[in-house]
Amino acid sequence: MPIEICGMLLPVLANSAATPSRIGGRSSAGGRARGVDLEAVDLFARAHEEAGFDTALIGSSSAAPDGFQIAQRSAAVTERLNMLVSHRTGFIAPTMAARLMATTDNFCGGRLKLHVLVGGSDEDQHRDGDWLDHDERYGRADEYLEIVRRTWAGDAPVDFEGEHYRVSGGFSGVRSLREPHVPLWGGGGSAESIDLCAKHCERFMFWGEPVDVLAERAGEIRAAAGRYGRTIGFSVSLRPILGATEDEAWERAHALLEEIEARFSGEDGVRAPVMPESAGSTRLRAIAEREDVYDERLWMGIARATTAPGNSTALVGTPEQVADSILRYYDVGIDALLIRGFDAYADTLEYGKELIPLIRERVAARDAERG
Prior knowledge:
Blueprint: E1 4-9, E2 13-15, E3 33-36, H1 38-51, E4 55-58, H2 67-76, E5 82-88, H3 94-107, E6 112-117, H4 122-127, H5 134-153, E7 158-161, E8 166-170, E9 184-187, H6 191-200, E10 203-207, H7 211-227, E11 233-238, E12 241-242, H8 246-263, H9 279-290, E13 293-294, E14 298-299, H10 301-305, E15 314-317, H11 319-331, E16 336-339, H12 344-370
Parallel strand pairs: 1-4, 1-16, 4-5, 5-6, 6-9, 9-10, 10-11, 11-16, 12-15
Antiparallel strand pairs: 2-3, 7-8, 13-14, 14-15
Helix pairs in contact: 1-2, 1-12, 2-3, 3-5, 5-6, 6-7, 11-12
């Protein structure tokens, strides 16, 4: 089957002190952010579509602009790009969330997907007034998604009584354009995250780990989904660092690592964020500490330097070499790919020139071999 290729949209903030360059790179101008830079958002969304991405992730945090509105704006300036909006469960009523998501999907022309977040950082959750612990958040998320999905079904008003929610006659007068409903993606490293996604999500999202490790984990998650009478797909998130030659790619990688290590040296009081509540981050840190490179070019240097708070593992090499590495994930059943660079806009364009066409060619050839 065709591989789904995702990128990531950054909601660039306009600045009162200086106008930022159009999605320039890894740093932003100083001063107080005043609002969203709409021109930059438009440019970034169009760049993803023109580069050949199918979908673009829109992240979420306690300080980020609203992802649903970023999605609507991005959909308005593109024709086929899907918007994968990160949404933290538990901050609004689930019946209200169901209506919000269905409405947004209509404004996006049926191109909305949801990335389900439960909360990997207690500190970030506290900023928005959420003081539940890890396990309680997962219990709440399970009830939340059950109510959302039942509301989307629309067959009858929803009555629900649980530990975290009590609903009587919940209903949505708007339905999503996408059938049967807006797709749910999720992920995580804990047993609770696996159970939640197996029960509710269409796709489980992995961070970049060695191929054999993800193959084993995928089998466990498929079995968990099967216990609910469901099937589930998989994606892997990676950050390609490309060069015209392999040596050039590694030179770029090591230069980037030096820059990141200098930033987190502690001399200016800036230290890499550690997220002990995130089982996924803990997993990735342990893998990064064991080896520097897995599977020939899965590089853990930046994950180690940043304490792996998120998608931070890189594939380093020429476009052909990186495409071959990505095919290995496809061969073990991972049929979606999230790639983003460290120089957001420039790397988006670069991936579209060679890497994305090569990935699609290799996947098509593999499918033809399998008949």
